[in-house]
Amino acid sequence: MNFRQLEYFLAVADAGQITAAAHQLHMAQPPLSYQIKQLENDLGVPLLNRSANGVTLTPAGRLLQDYARQLVDLRERADSQVRSLGQGLAGVLSVGVVSSSIGATPNAKLRTLTRHYPKVQIRLFEDNTYGLIDRLEKHLIDVAIVRTPFSAPGLTSKELTTESMVAVVPHKYDHFAGATLRVEDLAEVPLIIYRRFEQIFQTTFDQKGMQPFIACTCDDARTAVQWADARMGVAVVPRTVAEETSGVATSIRAIRYQPWRTTLKLVWPTTITPSPLLQRFIDSY
C-alpha cells in the first residue's frame, strides 16, 4: 500500500465511479482499476462493491477511507512544514474554526500577513469545539479557534474576545418592555438555542425555577439566527453571531445575566514548539 494507491482509492470513493475518477485523475480507466485491485489484494479484503451503476464502499472500504484521508493530509502537511522550516514565509497552515467565530477571523493582521507572504496557504476545517480539539490532539490541524466552555489541559491558549449572549427576537415576539432582557423574560417565548450552550442554559433555568419551551436545538449558531429570522422563535446566541447574521425581521436584545458569557480562544498543543509559520499566525491575533 502506497500513497498513490490511497489517492486513487479516495478519488474513486468520492466519485462513486471508476470512469469518473479516472477522468478527474487524467488517466485511463484500466490502470486505475488495476491499482485499486492491487490495493485490495495487498490488504486481503474487498474495498468496493462494483455494479453497473458505479461503486460503493464495503465496510472495510469505509474504514480505509477515514484512515486514507488522515494519511494523505498528514503527508501534505509534513511536506509543507519541512519545506518551510525556519522561514515561516511559505507553506500550508491547517486552521480549525467554530461556526460561531464569525467576525473574529479573518482579522486585519491576518490579512496583512497573507498579503506580505502570498505563498502562505491557509486550510480551514470547520467543526464544533470538541471536534477541533480532537483534531489538534491527533495532529490533523495546527491551531484552532474554539469557544468556551471546554476542558483541554493539553492545550496552550490565547484569549481573543469575550462576549455576552443576546436574544435575536422576531418582531412577532417583540413584546418586551425594555431593550435589555432578563433571563426571566425568556420564559414565555419559544427558544432556539445553540447546542453548544444547552447545558449552561438549562442549569440557569433550573436555578431560576423556569421551564421555557425549547422550540429548536441546533449545532450551528448561524442556523439558530436563521430560524429566528423565519419567526420560529427567539434565538439565544453570542453577540457577534447575531450582529453578523441577523436580518431586518428581527431585533437584537442584550440579556442582563453575567454568567451567560463566552470567550473565543486560539489554541494549539502544549507539546509542540510552534513553527515559524504557526508563530506568525498566532502573533496575528
TrEMBL record:
> Key word DNA-binding present in the record?
yes
The protein's UniProt keywords, in alphabetical order, are: DNA-binding, Transcription, Transcription regulation
The record ties this protein, via Pfam families, to:
HTH_1, LysR_substrate
Q: Which residues form the HTH lysR-type domain?
A: 1-58
Q: An example Gene Ontology cellular component term from the record?
A: protein-DNA complex
Looking up InterPro entries in the UniProt record yields: LysR_HTH_N, LysR_subst-bd, WH-like_DNA-bd_sf, WH_DNA-bd_sf
State whether keyword Transcription regulation applies: yes
Q: Which domain of life is it from?
A: Bacteria
Q: What GO molecular functions are on record for this protein?
A: DNA binding; DNA-binding transcription factor activity
**Protein family per UniProt:** Belongs to the LysR transcriptional regulatory family.
Its protein name is Fhu operon transcription regulator
| Native source species | Levilactobacillus parabrevis ATCC 53295
